[in-house]
Amino acid sequence: MLRVGVLVSGGGTNLQAIIDAVDSGVITNTSLEVVISNNPNAYALTRAENHGIEHLCISPKTFDSREQYNEALIKALDDRNLDLVVLAGCMVVLPATLISKYKNRIINIHPALIPSFCGKGFYGLHVHEEVLKRGVKLTGATVHFVDEGTDTGPIIAQKAVEVKWGDTPEVLQKRVMEEAEWKIMPYAINLIANGKVEVIDGKVKINE
Ligand code: GAR
Fold this sequence. Notes:
By secondary structure, the protein is α/β, with parallel strands linked by helices.
């Protein structure tokens, strides 16, 4: 069983897609051990509660220093013996020590086709605003391993989504979530849970 912890910050629709995929058997060989939010009001915490998954808030705001927050987060993950940490709309910059300790064991969903519209400042709705400003015809989502850079780690899965004339950032965000994010995140977790993902020279080989 792949022991998974999920880090969230907001609504948690990607978390919901993961929960549903585990329930329906789209993701096999996986147990959702804990959901951790930096935001006490994140609806994602309610989603975890509704499904009987352990959930807690660890917020940088409640610690005297960033170091103390980092230590608390790492301890919470270590204590649960996790095989994989999933960033599902997690808006916190993770400590470098966590990233090196969990090398190739942290994955993130980004709401664009990396390497487009990614890096510092590209998160949430901003990504879709920039996509619309540039007028690209295709956008999408990417699941990737997390390394020391911002959105630079090995790419596991991507799916393209059409940009339509008249889209608002909100309309486009919803289409990207429905058509791409909620599909490729469960797909990627299932591949990892079943030992089908190999990282070779910074690139992912999928052994189907
Ligand atoms: C998702 O669109 C996710 O791709 C994005 O935040 C949203 C969270 O929604 N993540 C990033 O922008 C990370 N750089 P959710 O809480 O409903 O899953």
